[in-house]
Amino acid sequence: MIRVVIPHHLRTLARVGSEVALDVKGEVTQRAVLDALEAGYPMLRGTIRDHTTRERRAFVRFFACQRDLSHESPDAPLPDDVASGKEPFLVIGAIAGG
Amino acid sequence: MLASIFDSVTASVSGGAYLAARATRECKTLGIMGERQREDQGMSKVRVLVGTRKGAFVLEADGQRKKWNISGPHFGGWEIYHVKGSPANPERLYASQTSGWFGQIIQRSDDGGKTWHQPGTPPGEPAKTPDGMPKGESNKFAYDASPATGKPLTTHQWYDGSQRPWEFKRVWHLEPSLTDPDTVYAGVEDAALFRSTDGGENWKELSGLRGHGTGPQWQPGAGGLCLHTIIEDPKNPKRIFVAISSAGAFRTDDGGTTWKPINRGLKSQYIPDPNAEIGHCVHRIAMHPSRPNVLFMQKHWDVLRSDDAGDSWREVSGNLPSDFGFVIDVNANEPETIYVVPIKSDSEHFPPDGKLRVYRSRSGGNEWEALTNGLPQHDCYVNVLRDAMAVDSLDKCGVYFGTTGGQVYASADVGDTWAPIVRDLPPVLSVEVQTLR
Q1: What is the pLDDT of residues B255-267, one digit of tens each?
Q2: B75 occurs within a structural domain
């Protein structure tokens, strides 16, 4: 299972705890993980990626294994430790505003 | 006979302020106002829906409007631009929940604000249909790209005069249908009008507005290019009025297919052409449901009225200390009694002289009186935003407004005296009122 950590406001929206376990078919990429997340929790559609363009929203960042993956290709494989479930994929609300 | 008429009227008014106001007037005609008044005081309930920068609050009181029960914050930490109840079913509420980080969410309550869910994905129910499709995409506001519906795929003007593509940002205003609880309109930024006919599960743009021809000249105001006012004509279901900052006011007479600007008579100093069809920064429009051809407008500067459904406007600022402001509303029982909150200027968004004053005109404009009893009269530097005033429809019309300082003030006597319901909410973005009988 892939572990995904989502920020507080999205937890309350999806009514889940801090970490969500997802079954991802095929290669584990950003796109595959986010597709699985939105399939399981449709209320999160449009909150992480734009509804139409499917691009990451400007103030949302992706991290895993001490790396900022926000600007990686959505179709690039995620680190092995994410794919194996050892490390979580982190969805972070960027620090901005008040 | 009187009792049966009264019962039928009462039954028909459970849906909303407009019908309730009409019932009150009908009761006056029947000469049973004393009885009605007692009922208003004892049996009625008022629900105030407050949207703030950090959540929504529901304030409830009986017809006395003295002791308030406050619930919230709902959606704590999120900006709630607007919350409004359906006139056709007052337990049905819609809320616009938005965030610079996570975008737009639509929330719906079917029990008067006790519980909420995103339309199409209620908690505890499968999020998909049996064939695997999502039940709804309640936060998907996709601009119409079809040339067949008015060629709306165009650009609008940016602050520097260049052209920019339309980009959805948030829902400013939700206007439930007067007759169908599942039909609701959404005014959005960048300015467009959307409609849902399935309780907010799916949204479709009424693209004839953006596509009618002047769209490329629309330019954002300081708060963005937002469609913030939606008024349905209770006597003509095909007619809707909208207002956009800073494009102006528009009207459809065919249910939203075609639109035309209705800004004749508006004067805006910053526009070189004194007869400009669009480009006016309309802040708010209000209407009394008994007279849908009479509109009142708070523009960036100037308070105006129209007696011909917006075809022409004339200024009625009269003796106001400043005719800049955001809110304007009409007394539910007196169509010529209107309220504004003057703000010092477009660069100083606070009341003149540090005195928070509601101004009331009982002559439909021009002659205004300051209402100060119970409002701070020194060192007050809050603002009252465009969607943050509303009225109830009890016999003594209640008037309510919220401030950027987090206060929600109420008057239970048409504005003569005021008291805060709450003092320390986050900055108030919107106030709506439901009169429940």
Answers
A1: 999 999 999 999 9
A2: no
Kindly report, residue by residue over B116-145, the tens digit of the pLDDT: 999 987 655 665 566 655 566 788 999 998
Instruction: Measure the CA–CA gap between B223 and B217, rounded to whole angstroms.
Output: 17
Count CB-CB contacts under 10 A for residue B271.
15
Q: What is the pLDDT of residue B5?
A: 30
Q: Smallest Cα–Cα separation from A90: which of A29, A5, A23?
A: A5
Residue B346 lies in a domain: yes
- What separation, in Å, do the N-terminal and C-terminal C-alpha atoms of chain A show? 35
How much is the pTM?
Answer: 0.88
Tell me, yes or no, whether B185 lies in a domain.
yes
Q: For A27-72, what is each residue's pLDDT tens digit?
A: 999 999 999 999 889 889 999 999 888 899 989 999 999 999 999 9
Q: Are residues B38 and B135 in the same domain?
A: no
From chain B, pick out residues whose CB is under 8 angstroms from the CB of A42.
120-121, 127-128, 134-135, 137
- Domain extent for B342: 83-426+428-432
Contact (CB<8Å) A43/B121: yes
B34, B92: one domain: no
Nearest to B83 by CA among B59, B116, B50: B50
Q: Looking at beta carbons, which residues of chain A come within 8 Å of B134?
A: 42, 45
Residue B103 has its nearest CB partner, among A12, A57, A96, at A57
Pairing of the two strands A89-93 and A2-5: parallel
Contact check, Cβ <8 Å, A10/B102: yes
Whether residue B128 and residue A47 make contact (CB cut-off 8 A), yes or no, is no
Cis-peptide into B246, omega within 30 deg: yes
Q: Does domain A2-93 have CATH number 3.30.70.260?
A: no
Number of domains in chain B: 2
Q: How far apart are CA B409 and CA B316, in angstroms?
A: 25
- The verdict on B218 and B362 lying in the same domain is yes
